[in-house]
Specification:
It contains 20 helices and no strands. By secondary structure, it is mainly alpha-helical. The two termini are about 30 Å apart. The protein binds aspartic acid.
Length: about 425
């Protein structure tokens, strides 16, 4: 068999499995873990950095190209309305599904008093860092989130990957203005962004050649840095609840895609495979965005006009996996502390988890920072964050898969509704 000729998702899968096996083997040797973090992990870091490097230029070029391709504002507002509406709807459904699962399984009741104390003790320092980070956001004035949308300096906004919403704002504003100037005058700028977009897509192709090796390093580093198996066991029911909820969400996407576009689940899965695997190994929707765009355009048949508008926005604001996880985690922590949450409190979680997932950055661990806000609003002890720390990374990997799958689903539905879905 020729490795070079294998489809990309198989290569990524092989890279992941080899990375895990390699790390398990190296773990047998006393300084194996250290060797991996010195000599293997840096390659994974370089791979993620290269992907992140592309995020800001990609959002700028693709959104400006996407919006200016639409040629008239009414088309934009129609597509924009549908996109935001669908994003909100899927997020609310995700949170509700999470609540349903966690209320049926009740994972918090299976944690013993000793395990709870042990977990809190082990992770309280890590948790307090997250609480600090969230507190800064929480103390902001009510309209601060809207104020933060508008950057006062585009170079400053573009120099921080955490400011994606500001970059999106600039790109939309710029694209709309480009659409409004007479075609003759706007032409050089339009051609510039069209061609910039092509160059960036080529950069992504080149980076993806390294993907199997990148995920090999990422998985190997993850395995040697993982906490002990005992803790994982104690949190098994909680992790299982999150994973069941996430799996149901994927089934829900298949259903949506089938109902709205007539495409079968197998079609969706084989098209999205590379993006889902990459989301799993990087835990970052922003880093996965370039590949999500490629999969959606080349395999799922969404025209660039739609994908270049819907996906960058989705990667930033639509996080169904994250919102579902936040709902499950909040109720789990409440259960572990012996609190019963009534209907009103759970309804509050639907609202805060929806908003918190919109506010979460598309990077590893961001969902956990925003979880603090959900906990605070529902009156659940924030120290509970320490309970779930041990299993957060694997769950982050899984929820990121759902985050990118949700964006792809919405892009297909929007494309179908405006006649931009190829057969
Ligand atoms: N890692 C997730 C993402 O990038 C966000 C999170 O839930 O932490 O989509």
């Amino acid at each position: 068999m020729n490795f070079k000729k294998l489809p990309l998702h198989w290569k990524i899968m092989i890279g992941m499995v080899m990375g895990i096996l390699f790390a398990l083997m190296m773990n047998q040797w006393s300084s194996g873990a250290l060797w991996i973090s010195h000599w293997i992990k840096p390659w994974g870091t370089i791979f993620i950095n290269a992907l992140k490097l592309i995020a800001v230029p990609l959002i700028l070029a693709s959104l400006i190209k996407g919006v200016s391709d639409l040629k008239d504002v009414s088309k934009l507002s129609k597509m924009g309305g549908k996109t935001i509406g669908l994003y909100l709807m899927t997020t609310v459904i995700a949170v509700s599904l999470g609540l349903l699962v966690v209320n049926i399984i009740r994972p918090g009741h299976s944690i013993s008093e000793t395990t709870r104390l042990e977990l809190i003790e082990n992770y309280s320092q890590d948790a307090s860092q997250k609480i600090e980070a969230a507190r800064a956001q929480q103390e902001a004035a009510p309209l601060q989130a809207i104020v933060d949308l508008v950057p006062d300096n585009i170079f400053k906004a573009a120099s921080d990957n955490g400011n994606m919403l500001q970059v999106i704002f600039f790109a939309l504003f710029f694209g709309i203005s480009l659409m409004l100037v007479p075609e003759e005058i706007g032409k050089p700028v339009k051609s510039f962004f069209d061609s910039l977009n092509e160059v960036i897509l080529k950069m992504i192709d080149l980076i993806m050649l390294a993907a199997p090796y990148g995920v090999f390093s990422l998985m190997a580093a993850l395995v040697v840095e993982a906490p002990s198996v005992d803790l994982f066991q104690a949190l098994g029911m909680y992790a299982l609840s999150v994973v069941i909820g996430l799996a149901l969400m994927i089934v829900f996407y298949w259903l949506l895609v089938y109902l709205f576009t007539g495409k079968k689940p197998a079609f969706f899965q084989s098209g999205m495979g590379p993006a889902q695997l990459l989301a799993f190994s990087t835990s970052s929707s922003a880093a996965t965005l370039p590949v999500t765009m490629e999969c959606v355009e080349d395999h799922l048949g969404v025209e660039e006009e739609v994908s270049s508008f819907v996906l960058p926005i989705g990667a930033t604001i639509n996080m169904d996996g994250t919102s579902l996880y936040q709902a499950v985690a909040a109720v789990f922590i409440a259960q572990a502390f012996g609190m019963e949450l009534g209907f009103a409190a759970q309804l509050g979680i639907v609202a805060t988890a929806t908003l918190a997932s919109i506010g979460s950055a598309a990077v590893p661990g961001a969902g956990m920072v925003m979880l603090v806000i959900v906990l605070a609003q529902a009156g659940i002890p924030e120290a509970g964050l320490a309970l779930i720390f041990a299993v957060d990374r694997p769950l982050d990997m899984c929820r990121t898969v759902v985050n990118v799958s949700g964006d792809a689903t919405v892009s297909m539905i929007v494309a179908k509704s405006v006649g931009k879905l190829r057969d």
